Amino acid sequence: MQEAAEHLLPTVQADEKDDGDDDDDYSQAEEPVLEVWNGTRTTAFRYFATLYSFTVMGMNDGAIGALLPYIETFYDISYTVVSLLFLAPFVGYIIAALTNNIIHHKLGQRGIAIIGPICRAVGFLSLSLHPPYALLPFALAVAGYGNGLEDSGWNAWIGNMQNSNELLGFLHGAYGLGATLGPLIASAMVTKADMEWYTFYYVMTSLTVLALFLTSAAFWGATGKEHREKHPSSTGSGHHASTAAVVKKPMTWLLSLYLLAYVGVEVALGGWIVTFMLRVRHAEPFLAGITTVLFWLGLTLGRLILGFVTGRVGEKRAIAIYLLLSMALQLLYWLVPNFVASIVFVTLLGFFLGPLFPAAIVAVAKLLPSDNHVSVIGFAAAFGGAGSAIIPFGIGAIASSSGVWVLQPIALAVLVVLLGLWICFPGGYRKGGLEEARRRHEPVGNDLRAVVRWLERLVRR
């Protein structure tokens, strides 16, 4: 079966190397030995601290969808206005993308471990005080900056470890676990305990303060000096890659757009599922909340289970298959107007969406030298996090005039875009193709050109 599948896929040969700045991106300099997550007690402690931090981040992102209808009622506002809660973190994520590299260079991972949780705690504390609605977006922007720093920093660090597919699977599985628990706790507090929506943020503030102590203790020795020594420039100049240099790399923008689309569709589905199930599928409030819980549970299981499959199949091939299955499930979720069927489709959709983020990080880590990982992956992860603001906000704005049913076709369209972006990554569809693409200096878009040539040959026949 594997050999047959390979014959059906276009064979990708290296095109001419692009001119310009890409020459240094694919340096063939000798790479340092990859870090092992449990190689020392300190590294293991750091890894578990990031797992806890991602769990808390997931709780916040998962709960916002369950709380959205109650925030809308509390402030008596429309879909468009309440959707600003999704758009607000965009500012924070963009600033995180621009400052992540310099914080690593000056303060090291210690800076990320301190600044990130502090910003999240300040944002959550502000939300718990239920200020006038006009102040909510500012609170979420501050929290978004903290999320963006930690998201980018910990993804770049773990993406450059041994067994990174599995380790990133657990990291994002921790996020998914939090996103599963968040709406469950929030829905129970609001619908069963008759609490106001903002009481959930008392819990979030407390958990984030604990995250601050954990990550600060774990990464206290990870200073800027240590970071500069571990990640010297591949050019041999000794200077770190500036943000201006990072944004000139095609790989940076391809990964950024891919993560923006992925995070956008993930948060849009998780955020609007409750409202969709209430208004379109006419579900009971608690059952609607359970639907988003199952979506995040599927996402968590997908990251934990498929993380062990993806590396063995090959990232390019595995993610292409997961995307095609996700598109089919999204189409079924849209067209089959049955509550029970919707729950099944949503859970499976989450399962196959789960590994799409960590696998992309692993793929780029294989395509680039290690000293580019923090700069490129860090920028892209933070910039991509802005998708959690743009796409859910767009859905809310359109839903104000057309209805929340628009969630389904928009989500399907974004998945199609994701597949197109994934094809643009070099490396072909055979296992080991990413490493081969790096050795051959294959440019971004090489696989897409190969697919076009393959289709042209089919048409001529």
TrEMBL record:
Pfam families assigned: MFS_1
- The Major facilitator superfamily (MFS) profile domain extends over 46-429
Name the UniProt record assigns to this protein: Bypass of stop codon protein 6
Q: Which organism is this entry from?
A: Colletotrichum trifolii
Q: Where are the transmembrane segments?
A: 51-71, 77-99, 199-222, 257-280, 286-306, 318-336, 342-364, 376-399, 405-429
Its signal peptide is none
Q: Where is this region: Disordered?
A: 1-27
Say which domain of life the source belongs to. Answer: Eukaryota
State the family it belongs to: Belongs to the major facilitator superfamily.
